[in-house]
Amino acid sequence: MTDIELITKDRFPFRPYLGGDNTGNGTTGQARWFGGFNWGNAFGCDQILSYQATLSSNINLFQAHSVHYTAPLPWRHLFLLFGGYAKIEPELTGFSSSGRSWQVSPRYTIPFNPLYPSFLQESSFGFDFKNTNNNFLFVEERELMAFGGEVNLSQFYGSYSLGKELKKHRLTLSLELYGSPGRLFSHQKDSDFESLRYRAKNRYVYGRLTAGDIITLPKKLSASLLGRLQLANGNLLPSEQFGLGGYDTVRGYDEREINADRALCLNGELRSMPLPFLKLFGFRKLDEELIFLAFLDFGLGNNVHLLPEESRFQTLLGAGPGLRYRIGKNLSIRADLGFKLHENQFSTSAPMRWHVGGMISF
C-alpha cells in the first residue's frame, strides 16, 4: 500500500487588468484607456469587489471611476452594489464648465428553481440614483450638448432573466423595467430635466427586452443572433436613452451616433471555427484561439417628442468583417471594420469605421 499526499496551493483570487479601445467620442477623444481589478473572496467573506478607472488620452478631458460589489447571502440570494463617478472638461467654445456625473445603484437578485429542467432563471430589483449637470457623455451633436443645473434622477428597477442551453443553441432572454414616480429629491423638477433634454419629465417608465441565441453549425462554425428593444412613454434623459452606433450596437458608426427613447437593435454574426495562430510559429503549448467573423447590424431609433426638423425615425445599417483573438485568460484582442450602409441625419462623412480593443490581465 502506498500513501500519496497531495499538496495544493490556491491562487490568490486577485486579478488586475489593463486595456484600451476606441469607444470615446469627438468631444473627449476616441481613445479610452482603462485599468482595474477583480478581487474574489474579498475580505475573506466570499464576496467580490471590482474597480475600474477609465481615462481619455488627455486625462483632463475625461476620467471615470466605477466600483462593483457582490455579496452572496446565506439563503442563496445576491446583494449587489455598484456606483461610479465621471468628470469631463470639453475643449469647446462656449462651454467653460466642468461636467460631472455620479451614480449609486443597489440590486437584490433572486435565482429561481427552474420551471423546466436545465432552465436558469433569476429576478432582480433595485433602485438607481444618478446626479449630473451635463449630457456630454451621451450626445455627439454639438447643437444638442448642454450644461444644466444640478439634476437628480431616481428610478426603480426590476428584471427577469431566463437562460437555456441546448445541444446546438444557447438561448438567453431578459426583460428590464425602469420607472420614476416623479419628484423624490431636490433638483428633480420637470424644469431641471428639461435643462438637459427637450420635454424630458421626472415621471416616466421604460422597458428593455433582450433576446439572444448562439447557434452551433457544421464544420465548427457558429452564429450569434441578438435582438434588443426599448420602449418608453416619454422623452428620457440621455443616460436612459438607447444609444445606437458603435461597437456594441451598430458597427460602422460613431459611438452613440443616435440616442433614442424607443429603439430596435438587431445583430447577426457568422463566426469561423477557432484557429491557431502562434502555434504556426512553434508555440504549440499555448491555449490560444483566433476567430474570424462577418457581421450585419441594424438599428432603428425614434424619439417621443421631436425637436423642430428632427426626423421621426433614424435608421443605421452596418456590415463588415472582424476577428477575436485570445491567449488563455490573460490576453484578448478584438477588431471589427464596419462599413456604413445607410446615411442618417447625424451621420459623419466617413464611409467606414474601425472598432478595436484589447485587454491584458495578470
What does this structure look like?
The chain folds into two domains: 11-90; 91-103 and 112-361, membrane protein fhac: a member of the omp85/tpsb transporter family (Porin, Beta Barrel), CATH 2.40.160.50. Strand 16 (313-327) and strand 17 (331-340) form a beta hairpin. With 362 residues, the protein is mainly beta. A 16-stranded antiparallel barrel has the order 1-2-3-4-5-6-7-8-9-10-11-14-15-16-17-18. Helices cover 1% and strands 56% of the residues.
- pLDDT < 50 stretches: none
Shape: globular
**How large, in whole angstroms, is the Cα Rg?**
22 Å
CATH H-level superfamily of the largest domain:
membrane protein fhac: a member of the omp85/tpsb transporter family
User: Could you say which structural class the secondary elements and strand pairing correspond to?
Assistant: mainly beta
Short descriptors:
362 residues, mainly beta, Porin, 2 domains, 18 strands, globular
Topology, element by element:
Layout: E1 14-21, E2 32-42, E3 47-55, E4 62-72, E5 78-88, E6 99-112, E7 119-134, E8 147-165, E9 169-181, H1 190-194, E10 203-216, E11 222-232, E12 242-244, E13 258-260, E14 262-271, E15 288-302, E16 313-327, E17 331-340, E18 352-361
Antiparallel strand pairs: 1-2, 1-18, 2-3, 3-4, 4-5, 5-6, 6-7, 7-8, 8-9, 9-10, 10-11, 11-14, 12-13, 14-15, 15-16, 16-17, 17-18
Brief write-up:
By secondary structure, the chain is mainly beta. The chain has one helix at 190-194; strands spanning 14-21, 32-42, 47-55, 62-72, 78-88, 99-112, 119-134, 147-165, 169-181, 203-216, 222-232, 242-244, 258-260, 262-271, 288-302, 313-327, 331-340, 352-361.
